[in-house]
Amino acid sequence: MAAAVSSLSSLGVPDGDGGSSSEEEEAGPSAAAAAAAEQRREERLRRFRELHMKRYEACKLNSQEVVEEDKRLKLPPNWEAKKARLEWELKVQEKKKECAARGEDYERVKLLEISAEDAERWERKKKKKNPDLGFSDYAAAQLRQYQRLTRQIKPDLEQYEKLKEQYGEALYPTSDSLFHGTHVPSKDGVDRMVADLEKQIEKREKYSRRRPYNDDADIDYINERNAKFNQKAERFYGKYTAEIKQNLERGTAV
Hints:
mainly alpha
């Protein structure tokens, strides 16, 4: 009997305990499936961590953008133009220092760096530009008139030299000088001033024209000058005082 068993063993026939090998064959696929499942789980966890980090970065960038937007909203509306202007002025100052260190004239260096096309374009732009932008307020209109009148002044250099010889340093008074009220203008100077004033009056009369009269308009003035003043006040402040005027007309004003 023992010989038969040994012969069967030599032929590779399993004996009565052969069930353990089949169990090992069944355990092999289950271990591979578990490993695959573990790998898929690790992959899902990795993707989850990546999404979590992206969400964190997005929140961080959004917070930074909100802070920057709040800063921009608190800045004045023309801040970008002012910033560009300041940066340009800093560059100009640095360029001037470099030119001064080299012993060069900044204006000449600046002109050498300008191309002929840019110079021609700027000249055409200056010719097309209208310095009179129309009426904005009375201060601006007065400034334009002052600049126009000063450009027309032709100084008398001979008279200026005579005054320098006569008064010396007193010709340039300071806060402690008592030179005020001692100057007597010449007859030619007075004549020039009178002629200029007459020219201004004549020019002003040409601009003055009679507006058409509206018979149906409300009479809220006592004379012609008061009517013009009321028209100007209505043009600038009418939209703010319309409700008050209506309440006064209805008699419901508080």
